[in-house]
């Protein structure tokens, strides 16, 4: 696990890498059957005849795997954090079975609370790319976290 980092330890422009994440066909179908059962995610024949020309992962599946990677890699160690908001979520390139995804997490804003100065809000830009460098997903994540260990 990474050492614990707090709001005071962070700077705008800091980056962390995540991944790789590889989505298999079976995993894509299993997730979609339960949470997003649209033909392009669950039916290979329908997907092949559709506008994507083949099976693609649900964007929600990609987002959930990015979250799992964040928890598993724990870039801030065991610092307690609370997700507050996701802004500007964009699915830009379809994710297909076998794609290998990488994540860049970048600090874009740091704001200490005026009313509760022991905590603040970290804004991070998440950029998910495939093995060819194409951007598959982007979003801004607002996270509440302590200013310091004290």
TrEMBL record:
Coiled coil: none annotated. Pfam families: MaoC_dehydratas (PF01575). It comes from the Bacteria. Signal peptide: none annotated. InterPro entries: HotDog_dom_sf, MaoC-like_dom, MCH/BMMD. Residues 19-116 form the MaoC-like domain. This is MaoC family dehydratase. It comes from Sphingomonas olei.
């Amino acid at each position: 696990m990474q050492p614990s980092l707090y709001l005071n330890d962070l700077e705008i422009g800091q980056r962390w890498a995540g991944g790789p994440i590889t989505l298999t066909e079976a995993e894509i179908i299993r997730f979609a059957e339960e949470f997003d059962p649209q033909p392009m995610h669950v039916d290979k024949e329908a997907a092949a005849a559709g506008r994507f020309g083949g099976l693609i992962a649900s964007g929600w599946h990609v987002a959930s795997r990015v979250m799992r990677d964040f928890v598993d890699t724990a870039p801030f160690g065991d610092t307690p954090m609370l997700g507050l908001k996701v802004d500007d979520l964009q699915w830009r390139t379809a994710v297909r079975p076998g794609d290998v995804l990488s994540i860049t997490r970048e600090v874009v804003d740091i704001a200490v609370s005026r009313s509760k100065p022991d905590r603040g809000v970290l804004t991070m830009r998440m950029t998910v790319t495939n093995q060819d460098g194409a951007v598959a997903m982007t979003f801004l994540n607002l996270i509440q976290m302590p200013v310091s260990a004290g």
